[in-house]
Amino acid sequence: MRLLSCIWCFGALIATFLAVISYFKLLKIKGSMLYKLNKNNYAVLNNALNKLKIKRNIEILVVKNISSPALCGVLYPKILIPINIFENMKGEDINYIILHELCHYKRKDILITWIIYLLKIIYWFNPVIFFALNTMRKDCEIACDNMVISNFKNDENLNYGYTILKVFSLINKSNSIIGVTSIANNKKSLKERISMIGHNKKFGIKNIAGGVIILLIISVLALTSGKSNVQATTKDNSNDVTNTFLNGKTNIKLSTYTGNSKVLIYNSHAGETYSDNSSVIDTAKLLNENLNKSGMDSEFIECDPTVEYNASYYKSEELIKANSNDYTERILLDIHRDVRENSKFPEMITILLSESASNFEENLELAQALCTELDNNGVKTRIQQYKEGINRYNQELGIKGLIIDVGTDSINGEQSTYLITELGEALKSVLK
Fold this sequence. Notes:
By secondary structure, this protein is α/β, with parallel strands linked by helices. Helices cover about 45% and strands about 15% of the residues. The chain has two domains: about 1-220, no CATH class; about 240-430, Aminopeptidase.
């Protein structure tokens, strides 16, 4: 019995030590905060708190060193959102993530999580208890999903299901931090969660099941694109952003840029809108019109606004190949708008680049040339580099390719018109 007691104490001490390490890891994550949002300066959070009738002003911390969104803290709860998810998912998706974590708060799931871990410390030697406690935690996640969708109307279940799938596709692994809850906690329970969400909606589960198959391929196999209508995507993960340069100031030494005046403009995410519901499609059309008026050879291809976020990059590739005879001889410009509602510079033009694209250096050269021209005209700019980017953002289809965020979703149509006009003037100057 003395020997068994010593073995039990040793196992319990290890489990306690892991909890202490996890606590300090959580402190480090909080210390990596990039933005701090509350209900007074972030309307999405305020709306979610009101919907769930939560009076407490729970803060959101946008951080770098966490894999997926999570709720932490028993006494002082906070929602942690990774920067890559905050910047790469639509406002509607962020709203569902916040609702999910606030439901964890309302259900007291953080306290339950700690109780579960305390029982694991005590019964670390008993696999049956471990299985039961893990099942209990999985059931907490499904119960939280059920609470979220109970607040929905019409067919929002489908959108919420896709949001969960998108989160899984953007992360490498689930959070390994003790004492937090997460919307992306366990891939093994993903099928059961999606089935539950599907059975709570009025239409069939086949629509979501198709998304499960697609995004499981994305998150597990990370295959490159092929020829099918909806292909497996290359993941954007929390480590995908490698460099961000304000005003396009990079360390690369550029030669004098000589451009090609043939341009192809499109919108992978054609459903994006600004604060007054003006469409990013109209912004792209205006750029195309301005370039053609100036004598440049510019084409515009309109994309389907209903295509799922990741799949849109593949669908736009198909449209480009089907509708442009000479796309390989053109500069491809994918026009978007950003989603950082609390950005200090909402009227900023951001250029996104994929380092894995075969023509990355040429794309970077063009991006910096545009940023220099825009900066000279008083427009704030930024270049953001990614290791991969979904389908390499189609940037190697043409001779050059860029994703361009024209402001954030907090600006209006008039402001986006100003930015796209300035972008057009910079293109005319650079692509001589």
